[in-house]
Amino acid sequence: MLxxxxxxxxxxxxxxxxALVMASPVALGETVFYRYVDKxxxxxxxxxxxxxxxxxxxxxxxxxxxxxxVVKPAPSxxxxxxxxxxxxxxxxxAELRRRYSSVKEIERAKKRKLESIDGNIQILKGNxxxxxxxxxxxxxxxxxxxxxxxxxxxxxxxxxxELKLKREVTEARIEKRQAExxxxxxxxxxxxxRFSEITGKTS
Length: 203
Hints:
Elements: H1 2-23, E1 33-37, E2 43-46, H2 51-54, E3 58-61, E4 67-71, H3 77-99, H4 103-147, H5 154-199
Antiparallel strand pairs: 1-2, 1-3, 3-4
């Protein structure tokens, strides 16, 4: 009698445990399978997903075929680029709204930046003028020495070379600032056009 009751109790426990496993296969560690589409477009169910198919998306299924989870395909390069561009556009819009309240404010900021760059370019051009004057003086010294039948010393030649190099470096700096000026104008013009578009303001 006692044995019969014990067996009945064990049976009830086993049935309850089986129901629990069937209700939550993943939580209780039940074997799962993966369903994906191969290169021929044929659905395949396997215990693993080959790497070349994983990026296309797949389903996690129970032994009975019930879908437990769906893994979406990885975004394509075009989709990634589109997502990135949208995020960058949203960031740009937020920055414009935060910094400016009107197109006139953007134009004033543009003017200030250009004035700063133009001032720097003028200083550099002034430096070029000063260097040219010194080069001319050194060349005159060398010419006078030659006319007097004297040898132009190495020190004077080195000074001329240093001045020429300094002039080249200054010219390169001017070109860089001019390129920055052009890029600045383009950037502010883009900001103005975008601000007008998202706010409907033109002034």
